[in-house]
Structure formats: structure tokens, C-alpha cells
Design goal:
With 308 residues, the chain is of the alpha/beta class. It has two domains: 5-74 and 109-194, 3-Layer(aba) Sandwich (Rossmann fold), CATH 3.40.50.300; 200-296. 39% of the residues lie in helices and 20% in strands. It is built from twelve helices and ten strands. The protein has helices at 18-32, 47-55, 73-77, 111-118, 132-135, 138-143, 184-187, 200-211, 215-231, 241-254, 263-273, 282-296; strands spanning 5-6, 37-40, 62-66, 78-90, 98-109, 121-125, 146-150, 156-160, 166-171, 191-194. A six-stranded mixed sheet has the order 1-3-6-9-2-10, sandwiched between helices. Strands 4-5 form a two-stranded antiparallel sheet. The chain has a two-stranded antiparallel sheet with strand order 7-8.
Length: 308
Amino acid sequence: MSRNIFYPKAGRNFVTTEEINKITERSVSYLEAGFPVHFAGLTGTGKSTLAMHLAAQFDQPAMLIHGDEETGSSDLVGKERSFRKQKVVDNYISSVLKTEEKITRRWNAQLLTKACKNGYTLIYDEFSRSRPEANNVLLSVLEEGILNLSTRGGRSEIIEVHPNFKAIFTSNPKEYAGVFGAQDALMDRMITIELDRYSPETETRIVAEKADIPLEQAERIVDLTKEIRKDSPAKDHKYTLRSAIKVGKAVKVIGIEPNPDKPLYRDICLDVFVNPSDNGEKEEHREVVLEKLAQHAGGFHEKPEKEC
């Protein structure tokens, strides 16, 4: 089997909650009905992880494509890269010379073509990072169930999409760097599920599992992250679930409680939540983080040590 083909599996520490189970169940139904599923959300909301989890619900191979500005349609479907010429000379009768030439064109198939032909699951991660003209080839695949391969000389070959073919897309529609607007015709062929924010209960479960910390500690970190997110000047792309997981893992490794009264915990939060690329807003972000830490201070009660 090609190294580009794999059997997706949910991570060992993938967190399932009622909210995530409902999203998964709806998505499975859409795929079984023949509709592509598109997970849209901010960085750090777990789009790619959920896409892998969804693909793992089907007992079939998958192929993964990462959107990129340099990607062209030929990078998705392939193209003719060479041909083989075979010449047969028949001189069995000395007075008669027969020659026969046969030219076989070789098509170097890429991931989309392989997935369509063989009925694999296609995971197109951050598809909006590819130029719209590169993704145009998907229109007929998702609507008519055919893949048109254009060959040299103006010829074309039509491939019928396998009934088991499924497509899962992810994108960050609010990211402004390196992202192209997806054409309406392509978006109309998908069912989009927004993953901007999970419920506090789901985020707490995820942080607790990923960072291997108690639920109580995870809840405090999630609450702080939400408060910073709400009053930050960069509400649209900062302070996500990934940020809370970073704080949780740091707390776990260092071996401290997430107590805002402790200078080391405050330093961790500043390191995670204040980004050097904030430029002119860096100090404003720092003030917001310190303000929220101060509001959370004083209400933390560490567990008393057990008497021997």
C-alpha cells in the first residue's frame, strides 16, 4: 500500500463528550448521505483532530492533503509525465516488412485521483490555503461524482467516483494570512460545521485529558482562558483551547497548582497568552492577562497536606 494511504485512528487520548459525540454522529450521517463535511473554526479548536476522528468511523483507507498556496490542480489529480513507445518489426518473410508502433501514455495519479478511483476517504486539511483555481477540480467530484482528467492534446478522461469515496475538509475562515476565499460553488457542495467554541464542560474535559491534570484544575484554566479571550483586543484568533492545554501541560510538568496567587503560575500564563508578534498591542494584552489573573486570585484554596 502506498505510504500516502493510511487507516485513520482516533488518538488514544481523544476526548469524547456528549457535545463531540453529537457532532460526530451528524457528520457520519452527512458523509453516508454523500455530502462532504467541512469543519470550520479558529486555530486551536481541534479541527484536524476531529477530522481524523471522523475518518476513523469508517473502515476504509484515507489520504491526507494539506492546503498550500503552491498547490495546483495537477498536484491533486496528477498529469501525464511520460509515455512509452513500443516498436515491433516483423520480417518473417524477407520480401515483406511489417512494423507496428504502440504509444502508451503514463498518467501519474495524485491523491485525489487515487481516492476517487479506489473509494478512500479524502481529508483536505486547511483547503482554503490552496488557490481557488486549484480546487475547481473538486466541483464535479462533489456534485456529479465524476473526475475529469485533462490530457495532452486536448483529450480528456472521465473517471467515475467510487461509491465509498468520502471527503472531509477543514479551514480557518477568519485567518487572514495565506488564506484564499473559497468559491461559493465549492462551499455550496459541502455541509459546514462551525467549531468556533466548545462548551465549558467540553473544553474542561479536553484540557484535563490532554494535560493529565484534575478536572478542578482544568476548569480554572479554562475559565481564565475564556475571561482573557472575552476582553482581549484580539478576540478572533487568540486564547483558544490550545492555549489552555499549553498552560495545563506546563502546570503538570512543573508540578504546581494553577493558583493565580503564585508568581510562577502568573509567569506561565504571561508566557502562553502574550505573544511577541502582538507588536503594538503586546502591552495591552499583558495588562488584560494580569487583570484577569488578579480577578481569579484569592479564591483558590490549595488542598491541605495529609497528616502522617
